[in-house]
Amino acid sequence: MKNLIKYILIMLVFTGMIACDTFEPIDENRLDFDFVSTNPNSAEGILLNGYSGLVDQYSFSEAATDDAVNNILDNNYKRMALGELNAQFNPAANWDSFERVFWVNRFLEIIEAGQTEWSKDALTNEMFQMRLKGEALALRGLHHFNVLQAHAGVGTSGELLGIPYFTEFIEADGNFNVPRLSFEASVQAIINDFDEALALLPTDYGLSEGQVDEWYSDLEDFDYVKYQVVNDNFFDLRISGRIVKALKARLALFAASPSFLDDQGYYNIAANNAAEIINTIGGVAGLDPTGNEFYASDDNIKSSELLWRSSLGGNTSNYEERMFPPSVNGNGEINPTHNFVMAFPMQDGYPATEANGFDPQNPYTNRDPRLEKYVVTNGASFGGGTINTGIGGGNDRLDSIPQQSTTTGYYLKKLLRPDVRINNDNTATGKIHVNVYFRYTELFLILAESANEIGGPDHQVGGITPREIIAAIRERGGIAQPDNYLSAISTKEAMRDLIRNERRIELSFEGHRFWDLRRWGLSLNEPAKGYFFNGSNYVELPSVEIRNYQPFATYMPIPNSEILKFSELEQNNGW
């Protein structure tokens, strides 16, 4: 953490969003803190560091779970899954999010000092102060949550511990030797930051005059034209009140989960925050009809499914080059497992493992249509070719080309643009991709899970029940409603299993499974299965990759380097 502090001033030019021509030459061409704290462009540059290090949707941590195998032998998630996870090697570590915390704490010092003039107009200046402070507090809470998710756990003392919580900037020679709070105290500290941010941020950017939040409209001499300058649609990708409520729901669900507090109060927080947002888009009827293919076209990338996303880049084919099968000039890096494929029900809604109509020798017929959307199965058309992973399949066949051909009998389709083409001459037709930080389907699933844990399949929160949510999600996926399997579910336990399975499918390959298994306390050592056509029959490969997690790996280690530096830090048990 001290490295950030040493270089914080000379790193202020990190972003193109700070216009170089606004700087006056000063001694040695350096920016001292007095200048930075009074120049609005420079000060905002400090805040913008808080937007770095957000979730990378394309990290594919699923390769460390029962959902996928990575074909690259030295892939870090593969190494983790095979038993290398320890306090010195942890690809899922997120301790460096504390660096973003210190950036925003530095910015909050600037805001509190009140020396930065964001506008010559007093009202406009006040509204800028409000919004920017709200962003900083929300980002501070978010980055603490990222650390908490990765490093909370039962300490060597046997207590469920959270993380240190930093609310001030610390100079390089300051005291970083701070003990971890209890888990619940850490959660409450994040909630406090979120709640304070909610009292400062606009619910959405670009609100019409009649929709302006009361904490803005009640300002003395409020002027809507000036409000638009501060909170126009131009800022849509910045964190807003709506996003903070969604993050609060995600945090509360995490805290309420069996591996942590297993607490009805936090399930209530999760459910109420999720329901409040969902009801602003029309309740269950507001589920985006194409939301389960949010990545598939330029229009979908810009759709209402995406509650918070990154900016749009240019046309690329990088992910497709990594993931497409070899016969269409890809490297076949991520292979979904047969475990994951069998999570998809039949088209009538019954689990494939329980359905009378499932034929293991004709395994992809009459299945949930989402399977075809997310996974390349044997004989499928994809990427401009027909993909055969069985005997006679050429370089797409199981291990025909090590580290390229599938090890499981499947290739990945989800998150890839189906209209990308990779040509034989190494040229490519690229398309726009986007990193999604939060989408509405996750929010619906948060409401379903938390409401079910509170009161079962038909418990209403905000007038919405878990059964209604799952019915809507399955109907969008192609399972006609009402389906008999869902209708027959009557217990919290059965609905819990179904919600978890729907979450596994709907949020697949978006970075959730790795953390979901841990918060639910489920086995991390399910062998990764394959399914291979041998020329006449399909044959299950019971273990193409054996998972090897320690029994205490539900809780991830704090980096050993931090434990050695700071005596007040208590390591999680076993590490």
From TrEMBL:
Residue ranges occupied by any RagB/SusD domain in the UniProt entry: 313-575
Q: Does the keyword Signal apply?
A: yes
* Cross-referenced Gene3D superfamilies: 1.25.40.390
The record ties this protein, via InterPro entries, to: SusD-like_N, SusD_RagB_dom, TPR-like_helical_dom_sf
Q: Where in the cell is it found?
A: Cell outer membrane
Primary localization: membrane
A Pfam family cross-referenced in the UniProt record is SusD-like_3
State any GO CC term: cell outer membrane
**SusD-like N-terminal domain segment(s):** 64-205
Entry keyword set: Cell outer membrane, Membrane, Signal
Q: What family does the Swiss-Prot or TrEMBL record give for this protein?
A: Belongs to the SusD family.
What is the official name of this protein in its record?
Answer: RagB/SusD family nutrient uptake outer membrane protein
Native species of this protein? Algibacter amylolyticus
Taxonomy of origin reads: Bacteria, Pseudomonadati, Bacteroidota, Flavobacteriia, Flavobacteriales
